[in-house]
Every structure is written in structure tokens, then in C-alpha cells.
Write the C-alpha cells for this entry.
Amino acid sequence: MKQAKAACAGANIAVIGGGYSGMAAAVRVVELGANVTVFEAAPVLGGRARRIEYQGHTLDNGQHILSGAYRELLRLFNVVDVPSRAYERVPLALAMPPHFSLRAPLLPAPLHMAMALLTAKGLSWSDRILAVRFMAKMKKAAFQCAGNLTVARLLQDHHQSATLTKFLWQPLSISALNTPLATASAQVFLNVLRDALAGEREASDLLLPKVDLTALFPEPAARWLAARGCNTHTGSRVTNLQTNEREASFMVKDRLWSFDAAIVAVGPHQRGDVIPYLDAPPGSTALQYEPIVTIYLCFTTDIELPMPMFGQAEGCVQWFFDRRALSLHRTEKTMIVAGVISASGAHDKMSHEELAAVAVAELRNHLPDLPDPDWHKVVTEKFATFACTPDTVRLPTHTHLPNLFLAGDDIQNPERAYPATLEGAVRNGVSAAEQAVASISKRHRSPLRLA
């Protein structure tokens, strides 16, 4: 990599898209010795994981939790100096009061997960043994299965009970893949289980953001880039992208920009606007998408949720988050709760008013004395993720166009297939940066001049 770094000294690479994947790509480009400029069409960095403002409060366009298995994202946190106070690391805990709870003790792996399953509340002894056996069998099989299997079929083949599926495997699968079990890829699900539950004990931890998602990584990354002489332009939509053997060029407003290479890191539903002439792989079909709905409810109350995050086995809302408990800047009398509904379902036909009313009613099942909310805000991200099915064909990082590379959570992962998570996004951004640098290094065996 040192040779590539020397060959790329003075090279200029553009990153189009300032979400997690784009900012990861930009940081990696600079790590490898080249210069980078980031262009983001929106006024705020973060893409589909960004800050929004409402009623004087800072919210997010979707609620995210991170995993201790997100090794590349955590590495980038260290690179750009994200402070540890920006998120709370807690041992794995899944709670669906009053029916189910599971907590991983502070024991060495794999004992921590075996004990978590064996001591889980709400499962029969036969359920616990079935879950332990399932994990043992998957580990023996190196977490590999037939590529055409769905999660539902995988669980059926291994005799996982309806209770286990309802309380454990379905919440984990929906949270990671954002795709219904009947159509979700079993292999991608196993990849997540392998990294999060069958790795080191710390890999199973939950990382709960205590700042908004823009402040968590994209803004620290932009500051890190600025300190190294690299610019990040928000409110800058790229048009008329062209490439040839020497450079990639495009327009931003009335200015022409030219670079040695460009990395396009926008959402898959936006990519056609930037590169309308990009060829899809032979035999592939257009990506299908799954939504995520986040329902914010603001209360003036001293009441607190029983825990910062808990789920529901019944009802419309799958998870509730106490934003006040997770905030670095607590306002004692104001509690904002985020209710999350992942993947498609009957709720797709409900209005925002209906969704808010349902969320309040279901929250009162846990907190009967809860007052009426001061306000609500429903954020529906229709293109939140791609549908992670067994037959999904993902684009490669390197395109057939010269000097043009792709990043984003839907692009092929370099090591293992990951779903549309923040970790998948940053891994693909890093991979795109490395391929762009390697391509420039191959073309130029000596330091490049500044463009």
C-alpha cells in the first residue's frame, strides 16, 4: 500500500454523496495519500442516516443502532476522532416486556451467548436448547447455507419453534436485513449472526448513538478532511458526469470540475440521476426496496421508558427508543420517544395521523399514565434499504466506465455479503477508495501533478 500511496501523491478524487459510504470513501482516499473533494446535494451530510430539525429539536430521518461487530465503522470513528461519549456501548440485551428478555453476560465468547440463550426469559427449556443447537450447527457449517434459502426456510429446516422465531430470530433478522423473513436471504442473515453473535464478546455489544447521526460520523469526518486541506461541499448537486481514460468531469451549478477519478456514493434510487448510462449486470433486475418508518412522539412528563430501548412482540411498532435517556443534552421535562417499524407491511397504507395514534396507544400498554403527546413527527423513508433477498444482484464497485467507481450500502461487499447497514455502507466506501487509488496507481507509476 505504501507504493500505491506514493504513486497517488497529488491525485485528485471526487466523492459524490456525503452519506456514511461517501464520507468513509473520502477518509480512506486521504489515508492512502490522495486528495479528495466531497459533493453532497443536500444541505446536511449523512444521506439516509442524517439529522433533521423539527419543533426546535434535533431528530434523525431514521433510528439506528450499531453493533460491536461494526469493525470498519469503529475503525473510522477512531481515525476521525469520534469521542466515545457520542455513543453508549452496552452488552447485548433484547427486551419485549412482559413476554421476553435476553441479556448477554460479561463472559468470554462463546460462553456469553450460550448463557444468554439458556437464561432468556420467555422461552421454554426446549426452545433454549433448540436455539443453542442452531447456533452450534451454523458455526460447524461455517455459517454457510444454500444461496437460495430464505430466513424462514432456514429456521424451518432447523426446527426453530414459533416462539423462538417470534421473539429472537425475527427481531434480529428484521433489524439487520429490513426484509420479511419469508423473502429475506438466509445467507446474509447468517453472515450477520457470525459477526455479531459468534465472534468476540464485544462484537455482540449494542452501540446506541447519543448524538444525531450526522454528528456521529459524517461531520467529524468532514472536519478531519478539512484539517488535511480537503473540501466538503453541501448543497452541491452533480450533473452531466462524464468519464474518459484520463479523468472524470461533471458540473456543479455553473462550474466544471475535473478529477483523476470519481466515486459515486449516492442511494441506489438516486444513482440513475447521476449516471444514467450505467449498465446493469447481465440478467439482473432492478432493486426492490423496503421502507423504514420512524414515529417521533414528544411528551412533557417525568415518566421514563422502562429502558432506553425495548421491542414489542405484538402490535404495529417493533421498537421504542427513549431519545431523552440516550441524549447527551437531556431536558428533564421533555421526553421524545422514537417508534420504529421496519420493512413493508399493513402499516404502509396508514396515514401519519393513524401511525402516530397507534404508536401512542401501544406505548400506553407499557406506560398507562402517559399524557397526550405535545407533537408527533412521522418520517417515512421509502427507499431506506434494498430488499435483501436470495436473488438480489448487487453492482460491483468497479464499473465498465473508466475512472468511475461505486459505493453505497447496496454495492457488493468486498469480503462478505452484508445487508444495507451503516457497516455495509462504510465497508463499500472504503473498498471504492482503495480500488480508485489502485487504478490511478496503475496508470501513473510516478507522482501525479495537481489537477
In short: The longest strand covers residues 289-300. Confidence is low (pLDDT under 50) at residues 446-451. The two ends are 23 Å apart (CA to CA). The CA atoms of residues 207 and 443 lie 41 Å apart.
